[in-house]
From TrEMBL:
Pathway: Carbohydrate degradation; glycolysis; pyruvate from D-glyceraldehyde 3-phosphate: step 5/5. It comes from the Bacteria. Keywords: ATP-binding, Glycolysis, Kinase, Magnesium, Metal-binding, Nucleotide-binding, Pyruvate, Transferase. GO terms for molecular function: ATP binding; kinase activity; magnesium ion binding; potassium ion binding; pyruvate kinase activity. Its EC number is 2.7.1.40. This is Pyruvate kinase. It catalyses: pyruvate + ATP = phosphoenolpyruvate + ADP + H(+). Residues 362-474 form the Pyruvate kinase C-terminal domain. PANTHER family: PYRUVATE KINASE.
Amino acid sequence: MKLYYNRTKIVATMGPASAKKDVLLAMIKAGVNVCRLNFSHGRPEDHKAVIDIIREINEQYKTNVGILADLQGPKIRIGLVKDGGIHLVNGTHIKITTQECIGNDEQIYITYDTFPQDVQANEIILLDDGKLQLRVIETNKKDTVICEVVHGGILTSRKGVNLPNTKVSIPSLTEEDLINLQFALKYDVEWIGLSFVRTGQDIIELKHIIAQSGKAAKVIAKVEKPEAIDNIDEIIAATDGVMVARGDLGVEMPLEEVPLLQKMIAAKCRAASKPVIVATQMLESMITTPRPTRAEVNDVANSVLDGADAVMLSGETSVGEFPVIVIETMAKIVRNVEEFGYSFNTARVSDTDPSSPDYLSNAVCESAVHLAQHTNAVGIVSMTTSGYTAFQISSHRPQASTYIFTSNKQLLNALSLVWGVRAFFYDKLESTDQTIADVNGILKSEDLIKAGDVVINTAAVPIIKQGKTNMLKVSIVE
């Protein structure tokens, strides 16, 4: 199957609009690299059906589409309200209680047992994606919080609650998350998205559960709370990748701060060789129209220029009317920026700490990128079993194509999220010279390189031990 490979990858959220095989296949042909399963919606059997279709397409068409299982996390909501909607009037007082009830003009129920203990006077409470705003007046530290309505309006049942000033005590992994996590691990998804991450410890705990399950799924930390911004360095250090989840982040923080936070997080992730996804409302108008707004086109383009590894679509592909057209549109935007503007990405800051156990391996990967540029090499060709070398080379954003060979089949799909990387299965590993000849020959047979081209090969020598990358070779394709 003929595919166009953008360097910046596309993540598409699955849903009723994209669940059929013919639609998903068309989306993959148009440029989808990773399929996101949103566990905030859908039944397990629905997600299993999509997993089966993705795996079937990968097997039938020799694609390496990855799967991101996105856990809901501790999403706080209000309960049911009278007549389906109540009117909150500016300046009036309303009680928020942890005692389940039908909400009315005087009190509403919240699905957060320790809410009265965690909030403080004068903290802000946002309802319905920030459309309504309350201010805490007092709490009895037991089951009731009295609030003033600052910005009122109609509040309907089950709306989300955001607490930008509050240090919440709810665990990052809820009981429902743990059930969904085991479901995702059972079917060997490549990536797990952890919502509402607050500290690096949240990631460490999730990785511990994954390891105890004997699985190798990598973790995406979803940054969507001010506390995560405060702890961003430790989160990036602990995780395998980051998602700039601009939906809740833009509610919990001033909107005008989000663009610069996006750039900051992207730069830090590149410096740490961790992939970063930019998400939320990228082409939202295309849920109902076949053409994006000019502002949306600029948003996608700027995310590419920020150095994002991937850009993500949500409702556009899960419930939208034009799932294939939206992928085609995003791919065109990405392609245009990459062809004429990707070199504008700021240079990655190198790790110069000689005490790092990975210092020599990192230096070889960085040297491969510089050597490829100076020799006009068409490709950097590397071997890896863990993916570490692929992440390192990608983070330098080489102009040469990046081709990764691995004997780790799950890694093939996981690398579909990483900027510029195309992965191939290879498990012979007889000798260094033979392996280099083999992988270069595979690329030549795929018409990705041709006789006379310069390629840069990296590997771990001796190759049969599969250690850290320590070898660099300039090859001229025969």
